[in-house]
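Still learning. Show one?

>
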Amino acid sequence: MRRLMRCPEYCDDTFNDRGDGFFFSSPPPKDLSNRANLEDKNYWVRLCCALARLREGDFNVFAPLMAAMARAEDGDFWNSCGLLLSFAAPYSDLRKLSHVFPADDLRKSSELVRLYCKILAHSMAPWAIDEVLKWYEATRDEDVRVLVAGYLSHVLEDEPSVVAHGPRLKTAPEPPPPFEERYYDYNEYLTVVRSIRDKAVAENAGRIDIPLLGGRPFSVVDLARRIIQHAKEGEDSPRTNFERMAFEGTTGISCKKFFAQTEHVPFRPLTAAAIAEDFLRSKASKAFAVGVRYFFGYPIPP
C-alpha cells in the first residue's frame, strides 16, 4: 500500500500507540466533528472526523470509514483505522469487517492477515477468535503467526503462556532415529486456544458477546491494575501498547506520558503506574461496568 493523501498536521502523531494515541496532536478545526466531514475527499479527514464524533459518543461512523478503507491504498491509514475499529467499533460493525478484508485479498497478503487478526483480537470479542484462528492457520508467514499469537494472548491470558508461545515442537513417530522429523503441532495449538476461549465463554453463561481481557470479562479497573503490575516490573512489551490504547480508549485519559517522547520512545513505568493509580482512586473508576466496552466513557453499542 502507498500513501495517497496527506495526513493533516493536527493528527500528525494521532493513532500512534506510543504517541498521541486517540488525542489530536494539535487543535483540529472547530467543525471537524461535522458529519459532512465523513465524506471528505481526504480519507484522513474522514478518519479524524470519526474520532471526533466517537469521542462525543456517536458510534454511527464505521460504515463510511470502512467504505473509505475499501477504496484507499494507504498502509498508514489502514493501520490507523484498525486502532479505532479494535477499541471503538460496535461488534455489529466488526462482523462486517470481512467486506473490507475479502478472502482473496487475505490469501495474497500476510500483512493484511496480520492487521485483520489484530483488529478482531484486540476488540476482545470471543466470537471473533474462530475467524482469527482461521487466518492464523491459513497464512504461511511464520512472523505473522507469532504476532497473531501475541494478539490472542493479550485477551485470553493474564501473562504470556501457551497462547503466546504458539504450537509445540514435536518429533514425528516415523521415521526412526536418526532420521526423525520435527514439526509444530498446529492442530493441537488451535484446539488449546479454542478450549481457553470456550472455558471463558462458559463461565459467562455462554455469552459470546462479552469482551474478554486475560480470559475474564473486560474490566477497566482490572486493566488499570495490570498496568500498575507491569509498570512495577518495568515491563515494556507489545502488551504495553495494547494496554495503553485499551485504557486510553476506554477512559478518555491521555496516556501519552506512558512514554518519553525521545528518539526511541522508551516506556516510563513510574508515570504509567501513577496515571493508572490516579484513575483507581477517582470516582470515575466506579462508573465502568464489568463486561462492557467503552470509548471515552461512552458505552459502545452491541
